[in-house]
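User: Hey, my collaborator sent me this sequence without any context and asked if I could get a structure. I don't really work with proteins. Can you help?
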Amino acid sequence: MPGAPLTSLTRAELEAEVLRLRAALDTTGVEAGRDVRINLANSQELAVALDASRTVRPHSEARQRAAFDSALDFAMVVMASDGTVTDWNGGAERVMGWTAAEMLGRSAAEFFTLEDRADGRPAIEMAEALRVGRVPDERWHLRKDGRRFWASGEMLPLRDSDGSHLGFVKILRDVTVEHTTGLALREAQERYRLAAKATNDAIWDWDLATDAVLWNEALETAYGHAPHAVVQTADWRRAQIHPDDRARVADSIRRVAVGTGSSWTEEYRFRRADGTYVEVLDRGHVLRDAGGQAVRMIGAMLDVSRTRTAEAALRASEERFRTILETVEAAFAIVEVKFDADDRPVNYRFLEANPAFEREAGVNLRGKWVTEYAPDLEPFWFETYGRVARTREPTNFESYAEAFSRWFDVRAVPVGDPRDRQIAIIFNDVTARREAEERLRASEALARANIERVQLALAAGAIIGTWHWDLPTDRFTVDEGFARNFGLDPSLGREGIPLAQIVATVHPDDQAGLAAAIDEVIARGGAYAHQYRVRRADGRYYWIEANGRVELGPDGTPLRFPGVLLDVDERRAVEQERDRAIAQLRSLTETLEQRVEERTAELMRAEEQLRQSQKMEAVGQLTGGLAHDFNNLLAGISGSLELMGNRIDQGRLKDVDKYMAAAQGATKRAAALTHRLLAFSRRQTLAPKGTDVNALVEGILDLIRRTVGPAVHVEAVGLPDLWPALVDPSQLENALLNLCINARDAMPDGGRIVIETDNRWIDAPAALRQDIPEGQYLSLSVSDTGTGMPPDVIAKAFDPFFTTKPLGQGTGLGLSMIYGFAKQSGGQVRIHSEEGRGTTVSIYLPRHLGKAERDETTAERSLAPVAEAGETVLIVDDEPSVRMMVTDVLDDLGYIAVEAADGTGGLKVLQSDARIDLLITDVGLPGGLNGRQLADAARVTRPDLKVLFITGFAENALLASGDLEPRMSVLTKPFAIDALAARIRELTAA
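Assistant: No problem. I've predicted the 3D structure and written it out in structure-token form, which is a compact way to encode the shape of the chain:
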């Protein structure tokens, strides 16, 4: 049947057509056995290859062309040897979408996927076809519209009669449906296998015709029966059903099987391998044949005994939970947070609320939006609850609700589906507690004020000690001052001293009066004051006055008897002297004025001696600490220099650098110590200028964070419109860094440091309290969350060499240096601290009315010669070693150096005709002419003279007007050589 479509041919007709095609190919000289392959093994599949030759007989060519074009189920593509398409049948157009006109002359790689093209798949197939003769292939290919299809086909070479290669034929069939169906089937089978393996349900498959039952592995894991060890029959399965349930289950299965339904469900008791029964839920599906007869049932058996137990436990738990919510004192509610179009929380509704919630709120809000009751509720509540609902992060807080006029302690946690934006709220009314805390804080503040007043009185010497007598236990305790004055053991004073031991120090003539006064005040309660003589640690008797108060209980029982001891010996002596003077006045009125003057002078001398004694005590403390530290440093310097000399003599030069570094390190520490001492004494050299303190803090913040370490969080809060301060910025940086290091040391387990700046108006009353002139200041505060300080430590915090740190971990000069620096800058330092609640140290600095100056730094350079020819520098210093050092630096820089040992010698040089480009002078010089006076005298005749002051002490003559004049600079001893060189270059280049 020539011309008939190949898709309508029978198998026999297709085979006959193949034979005709083979014969047609034979006539062209193409080797049919190698060039054409027809595979009709399992379906009507056709593979036809066309000869590229144009010498086929007309009738054969027409027949072959018709077969080629009519094979619409097969895409046939003929290609030249380079892969260019030379023929394209209708099947190719139908399968891939391109017409023959579109594809002729184009590369066959067009219908290969991008991945195959990148891998060179078309060339690989052609090369393989040439090598083996036929390359079968199943893979994804492309249609014209870019869609993929799964193709089954092969590539064959075309050769002429002499074996020359003419090209290739590619035959494809679209089997996407079969491919995806097969994949889906395999995936379904695999999912079923995995589900049957992984599920806890015992899955069974019952063939109703043979009565055989197959089980999955869950039969063993859930019930203990190994599937391979049980009898695979319905009888075995029925035998495992509890006898009381067996007839009911069999009847329900029979009704489903004989009916028309497809599903079966039943609950019954099933016996486990250990003989116990469990409750199961069994579900099955009935499969029927074409006549509706049930032939098979497949089902799954689930152990519901644990579920039932869990449900019962859940019901009991829910009941307990409900009972707790109904009876607990804490308020509980579940709310739904409402958000606007911009996802901002704007309201919330109460879905659930327990009775305690209604009691706390004072109204039943269940089912209502909060704004219905409190339209002016603070935005804080919406924002906080909205954040919990949005981020799913719980929170705890205390806040005041104006609408309810109460304080609440709240715990908010997310509940339910995140999309529902619901949270649970548990809160308590803590208004009474907050009010009690406020009263307690006020009481503590009053107590601290009283303690401070007592401490001030103790420091001033007005109070020599305090005591506390617990009357019911007869425990008499005293403070350190009391114990010290009476030669008692301070530890015994804290633990309790027998009253008899205290009374034993009272003068025998005064003991009876003291006992009567004590008995009288204990009997009546209230204030107590009595003067008597006591023997103190030096063995002498002194007059004291005991002031106290006996506190009685509600029933009149005496409870506590606290008090203080006042030293009134001097007052008594003055009074006695006054009485004697009055007596003498009465008898000798003519000598009254002379005697009063003499006595007054004597009293003033006594007071001066007392003040001198106190000064010497402070000086002793200062010099003792200073000597200790300097002896340590001098030992390091001296020892290093001595070892350097020994090693140089021995020729062991490699060790010299180590000792040199040790000596330099000790020298730098000594310099730092002297700077701190000068700061404490308010005599350090300062270069105050208008400073932006916010910018200064920002600039040093990274250094602070690195210094305090990762365990401490550092935060800076700067006032946006902060006034400039008149201060030395480098010294302020040192002070700030010291404060942060102290704060870190007070937080051994980590914590938080907050650095704040603010503008301050100090009025007259505040100025009196702060010991500072009234006016405008800015404050720089450092707060920590550390251990805090008790009042006695705060009182000594600014004392030199006072430290609470362990031995070797602090010099005790940090806070005293900061105090001296602040006072010298015209400001003040104040400490506020509570034990266990942290410390805040605030530095007050005077406001600068001008603009803040920019900080300019000079890059360090080497000591390469920079002087111009003939430039000359005069060095005036009474210390030969300093003159030698400065002269050597000037020589290295190329300057001519002229030396003078005092101001008079330097002035002679300056008044001569010698060229002097720069004067370097110490401030404190011998001979009656200091460095500042020398500079002023020199500028009379040399007005443009540049001056560098080198000093370790800020003489009043140097900064008498508060500022250096133009072309003057100052460098503090000791200094680094490169710093000296940089300052010389800076001045001479200006």
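In plain terms: The chain has a mean pLDDT of 78. You can pass these tokens on to your collaborator as they are.
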